[in-house]
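tool=predict chain=A
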Amino acid sequence: MNDIPGPEEFRVEARRWLTGVAKSRATRQEWGRGDDSVAVFENRTEAEEREHTDRTREWERTRYDQGWGALAWPAQYGGRELPAYYEQLYRAEEAAFDTPRRTEIFPVTQQLVAPAIRIWGTERQKERWLRPMLRTDELACQLFSETEAGSDLAAVRTRAVRDDFRGGWRLRGHKVWTSGALVATWGVAVCRTDPGAPEHAGITVFLVRMDAPGVTVRPIRQMTGGSSFNEVYLDDVFVPDTDRLGPVGEGWRVTLTVLAAERLDSGGLGLDNADRALDLARHLPRPLTGGERQQAADLFVRALVQRLIGLRVTAALVAGREPGAEASVGKLHATATMRATTDLVQQLLGPRLAADTGEWGTFAWTEHLLGAPGYRIAGGSDEIQRTILSERVLGLPKEPKGEGR
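tool=predict ok
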């Protein structure tokens, strides 16, 4: 622990390294110039998604190879064994440089799937997957949600049946809302292996090759116009038992590991757009009304509180605690901040929000307006987060339902 640099020393070191490998950029974009996108979900073609993924992967490999990736991980996996919050310190420095913006597939791989493999994987699985995933040679998506299950992930119907002849399993089912499925190497599939067992007891988790025979990926057209989500069909897909993650029937515990990490990563949702909405209020070509000033002040305070909640989550990690309640509070607050952002922008722009006049920073907000409600479901619905808080903080009786994505 004596070799760990202090936070300020670490930030100076990170800034020096970034200066040598990336171009700096203005800390705040000049108002009225450049990209005015405030899309909540990416809106790229398949070719654009693959191209952006390749550029981001190249940058993540550079970070990893030069000692700036996997910061909190042990040295055996290419890490530096630094405190968990040093990743946030690094990200704060990187924000001042022109580096590729990470799409969802990267935090899913590095911050959700890799930690789950570290906890639940065999030594052979750790050796096989952890370094390639942390370096992003391998990318992983979540094959969790299903149309019938909704947010009750314990109600999944995708079946995994033993294939004793080949020493593995046959998967049959349909998954939805899978980000990054077109560029992922692996999919983490939550499957029912014992249909006669209680909901939470008959589940097993597998890592599925996304190019395996029987895997079909179909983009889902969103009302924003983009297709950042996909549905994935598993038609008699063979998975060797060596690609099973965790014990048979214990998949619910494995799933909770991934879900907890997912909620930890949701605390920063929408903060960039909240800041952009406040900039819109500052640059509006007319005086704000009293109500608009109040709305802007409310959004400013909400964004500040959201950042403070993020620090509490980090403090829990540093203390070695699983920040379950803090993560749920952060997720709920983030979706409320996104709604407040929408409310303020609607008030400020009025009809200019709905009419594409070509004016910078106006019609672009429709992608936030249409996309933000999706995060009331993604990462565990608002209702699920409130159920977690009622049970784990208030001590109310549990409901016979699952907590899911």
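Residues 225 and 340 are 23 Å apart (CA to CA). The two ends are 37 Å apart (CA to CA).
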